[in-house]
UniProtKB/TrEMBL annotation:
InterPro entries: Ras-like_GEF (IPR008937), Ras_G-nucl-exch_fac_CS (IPR019804), Ras_GEF_dom_sf (IPR023578), RASGEF_cat_dom (IPR001895), RASGEF_cat_dom_sf (IPR036964). The keyword Membrane does not apply. PANTHER family: GUANINE NUCLEOTIDE EXCHANGE FACTOR, RAS-SPECIFIC GUANINE NUCLEOTIDE-RELEASING FACTOR 2. PROSITE patterns: RASGEF, RASGEF_CAT. The keyword Amino-acid biosynthesis does not apply. CDD domains: RasGEF. Keywords: Guanine-nucleotide releasing factor. This is Ras-GEF domain-containing protein. Residues 93-325 form the Ras-GEF domain.
Length: 328
């Protein structure tokens, strides 16, 4: 039988190479078998230097333990929501809110398996079956944004609404400092809802410093130039981080729709595969580095309480009641 060295394996589809780490998360026996095989390969005295180096690097990467072996899942947190003393927005600090928003956002983001990023399943009619975790991430974003808007609209007096806006902007800025740009966008998108944005009397009570900070946050996560500022920020940011998933989904859709799977010669278009692989690899980089944030049940109970959320139509009706339209 002809022996095959590591350098003789030939080219791979870059997308399939991403299977490695996710499959090992789901199958510990597979991971142990591969580790044993790599250790056996390293014992081969005839191994070439470059083969030995490549094998050692792979072995080292697979042997590294996750920062947190007891990764929380959003389902686990949902089951804990019966807290004897539920907290409310007024009693929670901006730091507590930002930390737990970041923890929840990262838990939801890292749960998406790599295969859901292939084939634009999130745009199909059966998207909930094809890409359930992407849809859960999208729903979580909407729920968090709705909570922010609902909390602001919950106050009858103008001063309390202005204070709530200032506190949420502070939360968003702490999220930025923690590299949770998804959280920044959840909050800023809520503040830009028509029901909130039109409240001129309320915004008049918000400090100039808060308004300036909000402008800065909005520029960071703006969709202008295909999220140019956010991409630059992420490029210079070390994980842990939570990027905005929608940016990557837009990139993947652009590649899928604009680039054929096969060349004119009928060959697999590896250029397209590499582009897709590059995006998924960047997503996985942010998924794999955990935050060292202690779960605070009293805070997540508040953040995940859907009974606090007011629907869009009711929000706008409340907005009109609080500040009626001026006569034409």
């Amino acid at each position: 039988m002809t022996e095959i060295g590591l350098n003789d394996l030939g080219p791979f589809d870059p997308v399939t190479l991403l299977v490695k780490d996710k499959d090992f998360e789901l199958n510990n026996e597979l991971k142990m078998n591969v580790l044993n095989l790599l250790e056996e390969v390293l014992r081969d005295p005839d191994l070439l230097p470059q083969e030995r180096k490549a094998t050692a690097n792979i072995l080292r990467a697979l042997s590294q333990e996750d920062q947190d072996d007891t990764h929380l899942k959003i389902e686990d947190i949902m089951q804990m929501l019966e807290c004897p003393k539920p907290e409310c927005f007024e009693t929670l600090s901006a730091m507590e809110l930002a930390e737990q928003i970041t923890l929840l956002d990262h838990i939801v983001f890292r749960s998406i398996p790599y295969e859901e990023f292939l084939g634009q399943g999130w745009m199909k009619l059966d998207k909930n079956e094809r890409t359930p975790y992407i849809m859960k991430t999208s729903q979580h974003f909407n729920d968090m944004s709705n909570l922010v808007a609902s909390q602001i609209m919950n106050y009858a007096d103008v001063g309390s609404r202005a204070n709530a806006i200032e506190k949420w902007v502070a939360v968003a800025d702490i999220c930025r400092c923690m590299h949770n740009y998804n959280g920044v966008l959840e909050i800023t998108s809520a503040l830009n809802r028509s029901a909130i944005y039109r409240l001129k009397k309320t915004w008049a009570k918000v400090s100039k410093q808060t308004k300036a900070l909000m402008d800065k946050l909005q520029k960071t996560v703006s969709s202008e130039g295909r999220f140019k500022n956010l991409r630059e920020t992420l490029k210079n940011c070390n994980p842990p981080s939570v990027p905005y998933l929608g940016m990557y989904l837009t990139d993947l859709a652009f590649i899928e729709e604009g680039t054929p799977n096969f060349t004119e010669e009928g060959l697999v278009n590896f250029s397209k595969m590499r582009m897709i692989s590059h995006i998924i690899r960047e997503i996985r980089q942010f998924q794999q580095t955990s935050y060292r944030i202690e779960h605070q049940q009293k805070v997540t109970q508040y953040l995940l309480d859907k009974s606090l959320i007011i629907d869009e139509d009711t929000l706008y009706e409340l907005s009109l009641k609080i500040e009626p339209r001026l006569p034409a």
